[in-house]
Amino acid sequence: GLTRDSVDAIAVTQGPGLVGSLLVGLSAAKALGYALRKPLIA
């Protein structure tokens, strides 16, 4: 499994996909990046 220290950054995609699904995924990634204090790569 992964540990917090082994994660260097959080990456997300901008598409393709349904807008609602992409917004939920982006929000989750932003929250995870904020909580772990890691950069978000889009």
Shape, principal axes of CA atoms: elongated
Helix content: 40-55%
Q: Provide the gyration radius in Å.
A: 11 Å
The portion of residues forming beta strands comes to 5-15%
Question: Can you write the helix and strand succession as a string?
Answer: EHE
The oligomeric status of these chains comes to single chain
Task: Provide the structure class.
Answer: mainly alpha
Describe the structure.
With 42 residues, the chain is mostly helical. It has one domain (4-41). It contains 1 helix and 2 strands. The protein has one helix at 19-36, and strands spanning 10-11, 40-41. A two-stranded parallel sheet has the order 1-2. β1 (10-11), α1 and β2 form a beta-alpha-beta unit. It is elongated and about 30 Å long. The N and C termini lie far apart (24 Å). 0% of the residues are buried. The model has no long low-confidence stretch (mean pLDDT 94).
What is the topological layout?
Elements: E1 10-11, H1 19-36, E2 40-41
Parallel strand pairs: 1-2
List the main descriptive attributes of the protein structure presented here:
elongated, 1 helix, mainly alpha, two-stranded parallel sheet, 42 residues
Describe what is shown at a glance:
By secondary structure, this protein is mainly alpha-helical. 43% of the residues lie in helices and 10% in strands. The chain has a two-stranded parallel ribbon with strand order 1-2.
